[in-house]
Automatic annotation (TrEMBL):
Protein's UniProt keywords contain Nucleotide-binding: yes
GO molecular function: 3'-5' DNA helicase activity; ATP binding; DNA binding; four-way junction helicase activity; hydrolase activity
UniProt xrefs under SUPFAM superfamilies: P-loop containing nucleoside triphosphate hydrolases (SSF52540)
Domain Helicase C-terminal: 215-367
NCBIfam families given in the database record: recQ_fam (TIGR00614)
Residue intervals of the Helicase ATP-binding domain: 24-191
Annotated signal peptide: none
Protein name: ATP-dependent DNA helicase RecQ
CDD domains: DEXHc_RecQ
Any GO CC annotation of this UniProt entry: bacterial nucleoid
Species per Swiss-Prot/TrEMBL record: Lysinibacillus telephonicus
Amino acid sequence: MQLEALLEKYFGYTSFRPGQKEVIEQILMGNDVLALLPTGMGKSLCYQLPGYIFNKPVLIISPLLSLMQDQVDQLKQFKEKRVVALNSFLNAHQKRNVVQALHHYRFIFISPEMLMQQQVLQKLNTMELSLIVVDEAHCISQWGFDFRPDYLRIGEVVGNDNRPPILALSATATDKVVGDIKDYLKMKEPFEYIHSVDRPNIHLTKFMFYDREDKIDWILRHTTETEGPGIIYTQSRTKTEMISEKMLQAGLSAAAYHGGKDTLDRQFIQQQFINGSLEWIVATNAFGMGVHKQNVRQVIHESIPSNMANYMQEIGRAGRDGKDAVAILLYAEGDEDFARFIGIDELPNEVHIEIYDNYKVRNEPPSNMINNGEISETGFRVLNYWMNQLSTNEVKNVLQNMKNEKLQEVNEVMRIVKTSQCMRKMLVQYFGQNLEKNPDNCCSACGISLQEIINPRQQVELGHDEMSWQKRIEKLLIGNL
């Protein structure tokens, strides 16, 4: 049966999007594949259809709980019952039952950290997998070295001689990141499909401010005058709460989203945004990956991101329906200093290395550094990984190089901020590609009219029977006095 016929049989689609068929054909031939497809181009189909053709379990290594849950829900909408997410949402009893029955599932979603657990590895080693997928594979390079080192171990635990093909998927990656993906996954001469990172329907603009507080005033004025849905990114959890509260007071439906919130709260907020109950999300970069909302019209960066890859990923959440959307970057003098601080804040330093060595000399577990408040949990994960890979002096060099790279990444973002040249051209060139054509309303440098892209906010007059909830409460309170 031809691939198009199988596509219609299992998913109801009559044709492939660019790149999907080429990637699937290579997987069916048993080849490793690295595919860079922009957000909204249907990356997940590249492993879902082979899963039905092979009819053996597909292992999908995924970075975030929300992303896993979104993919699970998506497959269940297509009547797939043999799908599971093996993650921290499961209690010990549920996890044990899922691991024991793992061979019965068609699609198995798992985090790199869960993959490293001994009982999970033992079970997977008894199974015949049809495909290993690393979703959002850029995380190997962007997160593996300094945030989640278990990403660097994936190739070690799945890279045996008898393994099935590996499919690495991402929306964006520089040449360096592509190299890291291939090296750390131990890919064997992978077929590469690299689509242009440019999204012509996302129009780019930026605004400069003397004072950071002026940015907040601008956001409030802008969001009360223009339509969403939209995402506002900031690098401070406190600021997400403050901005969302001000937006609520202005009569906008908004919520804050950050890693400090309870998992269920984050899920609830995300679902409200997806179904349209919330118009605006004010978030740290914890929000967005795997959020399949097609009609995001605006992405606003209240503070500059720490690197170009994050910026590209975040603005890529706009306009997934192919319609016009806008990405707005706000900058005030000194923003880059905070971005640099965020970039290197949790990196271990030479003092941490000495403390680690002292614990080893005393035959005490170095993990006590966390309990004694000498290092963050994230910092320890990074330090522990490298201390078990290299000599002490080599670790010092690695950590210093990582710090230098983080600082350089902020400098790359500042080039976009300060340039008088085409923002789109600079973005595309950063990822090693050339811009073929500038769309209308391209960017600040080329000329842009927000009024032609974003609709004005519709002011709704409430009748007597449609008074706002604030007015209803006020009337009830006054009536009870």
